[in-house]
Amino acid sequence: MGWKAIHRWLGLTIGTLAVVLGITGAILAFDPVQQAWQAPAAPDNLSVATLVERVTRTIPGAEEIRHLPSGAIAVFSFDGDQARASYVDPADGRVLGAWQPSALPRWVKNLHRSLLLGDAGRWGAAGIALAVGVLCISALVLLLRRMGGWRRLMARVRGSLAQRIHVVTGRVVLAVLCLTSLTALTMSASTLGLVTLDAGTEPDVVSVASGHPDLPVGQLSMLQNLSVRDLRKLNFPNAADPEDTWKLATRQGEAWIDRYSGKTLAWQDVTLAQRVYDWALVLHTGEGAWPWSVVLALVGASVPLFWLSGVFIWWQARRQAPRITGNSSLAQADVLIFVASEGGSTWGFAQALHDALSHTGHRVYTSALELFQTTAATRQVFVLAATYGEGQAPAHASHALERMATLSASAVPVTVLGFGDRQYPAFCAFAEVLEKTLRAQGWPALLPLECIHQQSSQQFARWGQALAQALGEPLVLEHVPRMPPTTALTLVTRQDYPGLIDQPTAILRFAWPAQGWLERLRGHGLAHFAAGDLVGIVPPGSAVPRYYSLASSREDGFLEICVRQMPGGLCSTHLLGLQPDDHIAAFIRSNPGFALPRTRRPVLLIGAGTGVAPLAGFIRRNDRHTPMHLYFGGRDPERDFYFGPEIRHWLGEGRLASVQTVFSRIPEGGGYVQDALRRDAGRVRDLVAQGAIVRVCGSRAMARDVAETLDAVLAPLQSSISQLKAKERYAEDVF
Amino acid sequence: MSKPLLTTLAATCALAIPTLAHSRQVTLTAQLKNYGGNGAYVAAYLTDAKGAYAGTLWVAGGKAKYYKHLSNWNRLSASDTRRLNGVTGASVGAGRTLKVTANLADALIDAGYEIHLDAAVEDMRDSPSDVRVPLSTGYAGKPQAGKQYIHTLTFQLQ
Predict the structure, then answer these.
(1) What CATH number corresponds to the domain at position B36?
(2) Contact call for residues A694 and A730 (beta carbons, < 8 A)
(3) Tell me, what's the pLDDT at B2?
(4) Of A402, A409, A405, which Cα lies nearest the Cα of A378?
């Protein structure tokens, strides 16, 4: 069982009870704050003898003085038969009011430490504390894994609202929560009798009557030399018992003092276990340190937040997890289907294949590619593989190739079906690598590698016909694409640019429908987004979404994209035909590799044409005035200087440190953006030497030219684009 | 909370009972006040005519770490290794009644012995010898008022 499973199941089960402890703990933290304001703290240098003299003057029946954790002085006395406990002003012994151990109902504390179940409940509460400790440790492991190590722990958190609440809160309170669990266990160990705090049995000492009256308090040397700072408790000798002694408890230990001679009859040092316990008590309750109790209250109150967001995360993951219906068991299945999917759409094709094969009487087992294997019953294997980014395997299948390389081939045919998009150079690259690996190992194939372009159902159906022929079975593949849930966005404004011949362009600003926080927490509606993320837009009459880089963040309150008319482009034509109040169906896809990390280092932004859109989004949200330097390449400042007025405005506001513009279609325009970089080679080198982060957005050809130019510019620094990419300082968004 | 348990006290020489024929059953009934706190720890014990510890009748409350708050009993009985033998039970809630039954040797009655009850409550002050009553026939059946946590203590001789 991995850390993730431990965290999830412990959180979902025992986490429910931890919520009770968190809420009651937050309420209990009120006590130290209330007590701190209730009565003045005694000055540290006041001698205990002086304090006792003042107290006995105002309260003749005093029996016990306590120096409370809050610093205040409480005196216990008898007024006739009436037992009293009072706050006392240490300056003059004046009674300030009645003292109570807590302002809260007792059941709150008892619920917190024993769930109102007595000793069994104390064991239960200790078990919950232990579970919270394990939850904290597993949370730290998962947090480091998610953020990518200690150095990036403070980076921006991405994901759904529930995920962000969970991770951001976790980052802040994890250490305190872990400490709370540790101190709870320390306290439980002594309460449950696993650790002994006392220094052994009390000494059997008595005051020895000498015929003299009691020594006045002012003459007890031990009390004269002790300052209130170190006092915990002082018990007066019982008037009715001539052998009774003074009993003193200090931070250092306990003393028994003869009432007649003032001699110290016995002394016991505080044990190490007691010191540890005292520290644990202060750290756990905030007693005597009210600012800390405020921190503890907030941490306690965060527990329900954790639990609720955790439940939502689990529920969302369950809902989104690919689920194959009608799966046979692996051992019995004669057809195995393995899937490598990035966005989840490949699972839909797998289900269609699964259903068709089941329909013709096969027992089919479908699973993720990283579980690739065959059994004695296996007759056919199909691998459906999507490609991620520049030809990598989808994240979940990243170790699939290594695993497959360790398996020896059998006579069972393994057929690979790839999924991808032809406009990327690495079209179906992962499927090709899989095909090559399998053939090299000697696995036969029923059909040669086929690559499905843009999730085309027609192409998939044609492959199905070939498959039916090869199997000799009447097989029909019908795939109905599953779209991510979309949100209806409303066009608010559009800013038109003429562009060049037949390529009008517009910056479109959309609004999304209002959503309650509960809806957002449940992952409904438009997901959270930041500049550089992508919006998927589904044009009418198409099942395949097109993606555009976002020029705004959710905090901006609008969703903005820059769209250029593509010749014959279904989606761009649709978008450029929109008028204010028209709607589109859209969803968010995060683009974590391109997003800008929170940084103080300089940022070099290089964009051409509509590629300036996400860069403009970065600048717009640069509230901390990180030095951002923009290189913008257009064709004609009159026709395609997108965001021109905004860029000038941001420059004035200090959100943008500098801007260099070049235009390729006007005389003296400066050529292309890479020409500007070459001319500024010295400055670019300086920025990179300072640790600059580089973001490039534009066409594929532009990105390639920029990379070549920068490689040449950086050569004197012994640096290169690939080095910067490895350090995640260089990222491209190309189209 | 009532604890009608037959307690045989053979812990110390003073309480040793030669035969049951020479013993009498004593029932202690301690009514607690509504002091508004968690369950009280109560120790019931005997002292002899000289005020020395003579034996433990009952200890209500199970956690040894709190026994130091029953300070008189804890100090006096420290050398009695068998002070807890068969005489412990749960702590007593506010407003409840503690009932203890013990067989005591005839020789202990009307011989200057005293019954003491120490009491302590979490977060509140300790109350050593909250109530004390001479173990003599004259006091049997007469409620004695306690100081802090114990409303009254009554003992019956049979």
Answers:
(1) 2.60.40
(2) yes
(3) 36
(4) A409
Output the furthest CA–CA distance in chain A (Å, rounded): 119
- The answer to whether the CB of A610 falls within 8 A of the CB of A562 is yes
**0.80 surpassed by pTM:** no
**What's the pLDDT at A425?**
62
Residue ranges making up the domain that contains B72: 8-157
| CB-based contact A64 B71, cutoff 8 Å | no
pLDDT in tens, A508-563: 999 999 887 777 777 778 888 999 998 989 888 776 778 899 999 999 999 999 99
- Report the residue of chain B nearest A189, measured CA to CA: B65
- Residues on chain B bordering chain A, Cβ-to-Cβ distance under 8 angstroms: 36-38, 62-65, 68, 71, 74-75, 78-79, 123-128, 145, 147-148
Helix (H) or strand (E) holding A544, with range, is none
SS3 sequence, A395-416? HHHCCHHHHHHHCCCCCCCEEE
- DSSP single-letter state for residue A341: -
- What is the sign, positive or negative, of the torsion defined by CA atoms of A31, A34, A36, A38? negative
Angle in degrees, 0-180, between the axes of helices A3-28 and A118-147, rounded to the nearest 10: 120
How many Å apart are CA A233 and CA A169, to the nearest integer? Answer: 40
Cβ contact A119–B62 (<8 Å): yes
Q: One-letter amino acid identity for B156?
A: Q
Q: Dump pLDDT digits (tens) for A560-584.
A: 999 998 887 888 899 999 999 999 9
C-alpha dihedral, A342 to A347 to A348 to A351, nearest 10°: 170
For residue B63, tell me if it sits in a domain.
yes
Tell me the CB-side half-sphere exposure of residue A685, using CA atoms within 13 A. Answer: 14
* Binary contact (A101, B37; C-beta < 8 A): yes
Regions of chain A short of the pLDDT cut 50: none
Nearest to A85 by CA among A71, A104, A69, A100: A100
A101/B71 CB distance under 8 A: no
Q: Round to whole Å and give the CA distance between A160 and A145.
A: 17
CA-based nearest distance B94→chain A, Å? 12
Supply the pLDDT for residue A422: 67
Q: Which residue of B has its CA nearest to A79?
A: B147
With the CA atoms of A219, A224, A225 and A228 taken in that order, what torsion angle do they form, in degrees rounded to the nearest 10? 160
CA distances from A85 to A538, B128, B148 (A): 74, 16, 12
Say whether A197 and B65 touch across the interface (CB within 8 A). yes
Instruction: Report yes or no on B3 lying in a domain.
Output: no
Alpha carbon distance, N-terminus to C-terminus of chain B:
22
Give the integer Cα–Cα distance in Å for A442 and A409.
Answer: 6
Helix (H) or strand (E) holding A608: strand A603-608
Residues 6+ apart with CB under 8 A from B117: B30, B42, B43, B44, B129, B130, B131, B132, B146, B150, B153
DSSP class of residue A254 equals: E
Which contacts (CB < 8 Å, 24+ apart) does range A401-406 have? A401/A433, A401/A434, A401/A437, A403/A370, A403/A372, A404/A372, A404/A434, A404/A437, A404/A438, A404/A441, A405/A437, A405/A441
pLDDT of residue A176: 95
Determine, yes or no, domain membership for B1. Answer: no
Residue A85: closest C-alpha in chain B: B125
Q: What is the pLDDT of residue B14?
A: 41
Cα(A34)–Cα(A40) distance, integer angstroms: 12
Pairing of strands A487-497, A583-589: antiparallel
Chain B: residue nearest A63 by CA?
Answer: B125
Specify the higher pLDDT residue, A11 or B78: A11
Q: Into how many domains does chain B fold? A: 1
Does the ipTM exceed 0.90? Answer: no
CA angle, A666 then A672 then A675, to 5° = 120
The phi and psi torsions of A619 (rounded to 5 degrees) equal -65, -40
B121 part of a folded domain? yes
